[in-house]
Amino acid sequence: MNPGKTRVVIAGGGTAGWLTAFSLAKRLGTQLDITLVESDLIGTVGVGEATIPTMKSFHSLMEIDEREFMVATQATFKLGIWFDDWGGIGDKYIHSFGVIGQGSWMAEFHEYWLELQAQGLGGNLEDYCLEWKAAQQGKFATQVGKMNLNYAYHLNATAYAQFLRGKSEALGARRVEGKIAKVNLSAQGGNAGNIESLDLESGVNVPGEVFIDCTGFRALLIGEVLGVGYEDWGHWLAADSAWAVQTESTQAPPPFTRAMAQPIGWQWRIPLQHRTGNGIVYSSRFCSDDEARAQLLGNLAGPTITEPRQLKFRTGRRQQPWHRNCIALGLAAGFLEPLESTSIHLITTALVRLMRLFPFGGECEQQAERFNTESRFEWEEARDFIILHYKLTRRDDTAFWNFYREMEVPRNVTHRIEIFRKNGYVWPDKVNLFRVDSWLQVLMGQGVFPERHHRATRIPGTAGLEETLGQMRAKVAANLAQLPDHQAFIDRYCPIPRTPVPVAIAAHGSSR
Predict the structure, then answer these.
(1) H or E element: which one contains 84?
(2) CB-based contact 185:103 (threshold 8 Å)
(3) Quick one: residue 264, left, alpha or beta (phi over 0 = left, psi -120 to 50 = alpha)?
(4) Is 315 helix (H, G, I), strand (E, B) or coil?
(5) I need a surface site. Which of 184, 205, 350, 361 has the fewest CB within 10 A?
(6) How many CB atoms lie within 10 A of CB 165?
(7) Residue 188's Cα: distance from chain center in Å?
(8) Is the pTM of this model over 0.70?
(9) What does DSSP say about strands 205-207 and 195-200: parallel, antiparallel, or unpaired?
(10) Choosing from 5, 26, 78, 312, which is the catalytic residue?
(11) 268-322: pLDDT as tens digits
(12) How many CB atoms within 10 Å of residue 40?
């Protein structure tokens, strides 16, 4: 313990716990005394092995060397998500991380493209996005010329937590081994009801002033002890179960995640350097656990190297992720199914928010209110984007897909679909997590095409518009020609030793 420093106690390890320990130690370590409590006897659910580009930005903020991280976690690069059979059986599309073309302040790029399309010109939409084309062709580089690509990672979640632990302890964070037996609340003055300390089964007492709940689905501190409620979103997102299994790699890793719709749910496939992560997300309302397990095992691309592991969850969020002197992160704060790989993102943005609002003075009511408001916006926007994928299905082959096609959805989702269908208008979400191009690719990828688009797109004239867009297509094509194959780039940039690596199953989108 260091006098004058605020004592922070993190309950639980895994990705959420060690991301928290590392981030706080890296950026506020001179002001904090950080202790993480975890038990080797309690397994972690693990965190999503597929991520989004905000992870790259967070790593840059925390000065994590990309090559070191990728070697340590056997990582590959990710340019987007390839969706199979979501709109209808046989449909395929990509939600890429790239910027599509270049619009104006009055109209988005896709509206100019629609103007040319109406005249049989303009090519395909993907011709204007390097990341989209590179994903299709299995190519990758972090940059080409002066252009940086927008990308994320596929990673070994267990190795990532170990990587972060090493860095956290090197910065002075302290790990205490043991199971939590009791959470002690203060009965004194203005701190009455705050968490005061944790008693471990070993008899060790761990006192603190700020407590971070990373105890996973159990939510020991925020839920069981402080009684903060949980907002269930199962009426919109019916999936409540998953099976996960790892397989041998049978081909070079593509630079994208696969999300394959199945009759009973959807299946993920995540390529790492040393193996492939697989899983199926489903709802117990519409099929049995055994049926889901069989569906997964019957659609694998290689021999299994682990036994299938089942996960049960409730989609939703903690009503107040910050209550009194306790902040919930990871699964303790909520769960969104891993369709758009938002798990680690929701942890890292919460950490940035916490660091900006950190309660050094002890009093934290106002900071907590702001933290909770921003968290709610962020979680709801991510939720609505996931709901969009389901609501846009035209599938009517099973009860699972009939439920989603027919269900009532939040007003925001309905509004987005209808204004795009009638006018071609798209806008980013409130927290700018999913940009115009993200909403556009899912809307059009699942069969929604505008009846009209903005007439400002007629102003340049057909010849001028075709010339401008032709130059954009040519630039993408020229850059694409310079990109190496994804595997070739990995072999140069961040190869791992070709020896067996101990692995443990981690769910594609859950977090602890």
Answers:
(1) strand 80-84
(2) no
(3) alpha
(4) coil
(5) 361
(6) 19
(7) 40
(8) yes
(9) antiparallel
(10) 78
(11) 999 999 999 999 999 999 999 999 999 999 999 999 999 999 999 999 999 999 9
(12) 9
346-381: per-residue pLDDT in tens? 999 999 999 999 999 777 899 999 999 999 999 999
Which amino acid type is present at position 126? E
Token pair of 441, please?
């690719």
Q: 3-15: per-residue pLDDT in tens?
A: 689 999 999 999 9
Instruction: List the strands of the sheet with 230-232, edge to edge.
Output: 230-232, 316-318, 334-335
Phi-psi region of 121 (alpha: psi -120 to 50; beta: other; left: phi over 0): beta
Q: Residue ranges of the alpha helices (H) in 153-234?
A: 157-170
Q: Give the pLDDT of residue 294.
A: 98
* The pair of three-digit structure tokens given for residue 494, joined into one six-digit string: 């961040």
Rounded-to-integer distance, Cα 271 and Cα 258, Å: 9
Gap between the Cα atoms of 454 and 467, Å rounded: 19
Rg of the chain (C-alpha set): 23
- Both tokens assigned to 442: 């899912």
7 is written with which tokens? Answer: 């004592």
Q: For this structure, is 78 an active site residue?
A: yes
> Are the CB atoms for 386 and 337 separated by under 8 Å?
yes
Q: How far apart are CA 346 and CA 378, in angstroms?
A: 8
| Predicted confidence (pLDDT) at residue 95 exceeds the cutoff of 90 | yes
Name beta bridge partners: 207: 197
Judge whether 52 and 340 are in contact, CB under 8 Å.
yes
Which of 143, 180, 157 has its CA nearest to residue 37?
180
Distance of CA 224 to the CA centre of its chain: 26
Pairing of strands 257-262, 80-84: parallel
Per-residue tokens: 503: 């692995």
Q: Tens digit of pLDDT for each residue in 28-69?
A: 999 999 999 999 887 666 556 999 999 999 999 999 999 999
CA–CA gap between residue 32 and residue 360 (Å, rounded) = 9
Contact 486, 255 (CB under 8 A): yes
Q: What are phi and psi of 226, to 5 degrees?
A: -85, -10
Q: How far apart are CA 310 and CA 289, in angstroms?
A: 9
